[in-house]
Amino acid sequence: MTMNVTQCLLQSGDAPREISDYQVGVPRWCNGCGDNAILTAMQRLCRDNDLAPERTVFVSGIGCSSRLPHYMNTYGFHGLHGRSLPIAEGVKMSRPDLKVFVSTGDGDCLSIGAAHWIHALRYNMDLTVLLHDNRIYGLTKKQASPTSPIGTKSNTTPKGSYLAALNPLSVTLGVANVSFVAQVVDWIPELLYEVIAAGYRHKGLSFIRIIQRCPEFMPGLFDPWMQDPQRTLLLRHPNGVVPSAELSRTYRNQVDHDPRDIDAARRIASSEDPIPVGVLYWDPDVPCYEDTRHAGALRRPEDVRRGLEAELDKFTIRPEAHG
Amino acid sequence: MEEQIFFHRTGARTGTALGPVAGLRPALFAHFDDLAKLRYDYPLVLLAADGGEPAIRPLSGIVDELLHEIAAQGIAGERLRRNVLRIERTIRTRLASGERGTLGQLWSIASDELEPLGGEPFAQDASQARGALRRDGVLLGCDADVASRFSTHVWRAVQERKAGAMRRTIDTLALRLADLVRADFLRSGAGRHAATLRAGVGTRHQDDFDFALMATLLSAPSGGSALSESRRRRIEATVGALQAQRFFEAEVPFVFAFDRVEDALAAYRDRLRPMADLVRAIAVAELELRGAYDEAKHDEYFAQLDGRGLAPEDRALFPDYLVRLGPGATGADGRARIIEGLTTEAPLKILFVTDDVFGRGAQLATTAMGLGEAFVLQSSAAWLYRAADRVRAAFEFRGPALISVFVPARGTDAALPSYLVAAAATESRAFPTFSYDPSAGADWAHRFALGDDPQPERTWPEHDLAYADPAMQRVGARVAFTLADLALCDTRQSDDLARIANGSGTEHLRPVAAWLEAPPDGTVPFVYAVDADAALHRVIVDLPLAQRTRRCAEAWRRLRELDELKRERIAAAAPASAPSLVPVAVAAASEAAPAAGEATPDAPASDEPYIETPRCTTCNECTGVNPRMFAYNENKQAFIKDPSAGTFKDLVDAAESCQVAIIHPGKPRDLNEPGLEDLLKRAEAFR
């Protein structure tokens, strides 16, 4: 809203929104699936920031993760495999006033969508990207993904996978224009929420890798980390996330890490055990593509007509030129 | 010696031992003859604002960047570098002699002038450099109108950015409202008339369709509700109001730059109603586009909305009023008007130029800081570029602002370059650079900041002065640059100074800075000066000027005190910086007693079942086991809603299926539950 007046008039008499206002349908994920925790965190974020459902968009590709827009009572776009980011960029380019979130999985983003992932980081548009990383293709009943640990037995790798897992954080931190990189685990709801909220506050592309359990196809994969709090390394900093006193009582393994320091971020990113959790990198000064390219330009009817005619002229055979 | 004391006390020159100071300048100026040879801040280039880059750059900076880009490293690029620097120096000389124009124009003039001397190689270098010079703008020397042109340039850049954004908003709203009306027309009877349908199809295919039949088919209602008459009228009136605005990139725009405070205030008051009309139109448009306009609720409100009811946030979207005041405004009347202008709600940006730092009005900025709510910036013309970001902040500040600039007057500066006099005013503490920004925080520590004044830790900046004594021996002295030294630059202060004739006694003289510090002891304060032949003289300062110098030092100390306040506060607030990746001692913190209010209970002591709710990941396992016993709270995390709504077996099943193992079944309620012994064994794991 441009005018404070409008804001006041719209707010008067409106009851604050609740989580149920953002809820729709019954999630079709398996019981115990980490996607549920991510969905809840997103709904809380929408409620706490009072996001208008009609001005909020969830975009996804294909996979278990990508069902998330179905359960958000906002606008949504369930796209093609690997193509969540280009779609989200298009939405943002055309309507920079909308809040755009992206849910993508380890297969969707890191395999078939890898090129889009790298270039979306370079474009640095104001998107909050959640990488639901359960290290397996779950929707299609267990095939190895780029982040499956070496030796993972699956339908496509019955003798165990041969390749070392890709580290999405290290790759992300090596791309030009990267502006926000965080990692969190689905089983610590407080941090999950706080890290996503920090990403949402950042203007630019926030890349948040969420390490997520798949109880159906990778049961017990993260049990050692869930059972031993010392194997989770909390990154604390006023520029990132500061865990609450209560959480610190359980998770005592913490370091001060200023997310402005990319070298430290890269060092931390390569650690798999303990799992680093928090904001690894943050640079608020990287320009957003939609700002540098003046997105959301006004299209008057005459502009639309001129553009269409210019396009159609490319295919027109002009009688005077040929006759 | 008596003559010296007599002059100091009375300001009257008697006898032959004292002479006038005409033709003298401060001794520290001995090295600065021709500024055109030096590469300093000026001339500045007023670049058209594009892409948010700094809109004002020094010529020397632009040339350095250019050379960095086109000239090869080392000896290979040396000729090009020399030639381009010669062009730069010629441009500087031309400007100093009164020429005006853009960088491009003066570049051409300078290279034409130099070409006959440099021949073909020069012409080649000049054209290569000219080709690489992509940005252009008007050149600005440190002249009498420097403050006005500098500020106007920054003001305009800020206003254009603001107006551009608002104009886009207004156009978007008007377009989308027009779309509403058009969509409604297409649904209406007239919109579905055969002739309208026909006009909607390209001429080539008009004969291929039966539009009358099409109109009959479409005449059946589509179910969409048409705009009510009152809504249509409101939308049309709103589009009209949006298009009639004169504030933002309008065809007949309002004027926002003035030369008198009262004119700007009158204009602001006259425009309150058009402002309210535009705010109303934008608000109505935004409500209409969301379908949220409620006639019962909003009609009355908008009918009452006038200039007085505008919120500060809404006012801030409108253009600011620039008022440029020349040295003539320093009278008591003029000062009163400025203060009045700064205390109204009108966003006046007052540029106040003074040419006399010794005058009564010069310290207006210090007074204006006391108003509390106006942005205040003081800077001499020489420091303007260094304070450019502050100038910008003053124009971006939401509310009134005073920019007080010292620009030396022509004819009063003993033929010194005005840049030098302006810099001396900053150096002598007569006109320090400082800013007061009410939006920077709630207290003086955050709001007040000194600019980068020279040697801020001292009362007066000190410099080395080396000269030859009558025996032609080198003598070095450490001298302070004070207000009394500055007085040598201003012929209006000549009566307060007297040159000591060569050969007079100097034993009772004391440098003015030291004289001010020492108790009265019969000595007379003096400053060093040089004449046109660079001969050193001592100049006596009379008592009134010495007193003003003392007051100047006190005023400077007060400013410094405010600045120190900031440093102390910030030092106190900043946490000790920890090196990266040092483990945090959270253990100690966790053992300390939790603060009141944030205490969270550990496991309840009773035998009741419980869930560590904050750790719940909303996986639906427990609610799947028994939805009456387990429920979600307002954050969608599970808790035990009713422990009696299920069996102990439900609790144990849920605890076992919980992925994060946060369900604790407690003790069974029903001791006759079948299989209890086995259940208790399984529950052991979740105690």
Low-confidence stretches of chain A: none
Span between termini of chain A: 56 Å
Spatial shape of chain A: globular
Count helical runs of chain B. Answer: 24
Order of helices and strands of chain A: HHEEHEHHEEEHEHEHEHEHEHHH
If strands are numbered along the chain, what order do they take across the biggest sheet of chain B? 6-7-8-10-9-11-12
Largest interface in this structure: A-B, 49 and 55 residues
The 3D shape of chain B can be described as extended
State the total count of DSSP E strands of chain B. Answer: 22
Would you report the number of β strands of chain A?
11
Report on the structure:
The complex is a heterodimer of chains A (323) and B (687). With 323 residues, chain A is of the alpha/beta class. Chain A has helices at residues 4-11, 35-48, 84-94, 106-112, 114-123, 168-172, 189-201, 223-227, 245-250, 262-269, 289-292, 301-313, 319-322; strands at 56-60, 75-78, 99-105, 128-133, 136-137, 143-144, 180-185, 206-211, 232-236, 254-256, 275-282. Chain A is globular and about 75 Å long. Helix content of chain B is 43%, strand content 13%. Chain B is α+β, with helices and mostly antiparallel strands. The model of chain B is unreliable at 587-601 (pLDDT under 50). Chain B is extended. Chains A and B meet through helix 1, helix 2, helix 9, strand 10 and helix 10 of A and helix 5, helix 10, helix 11 and helix 21 of B.
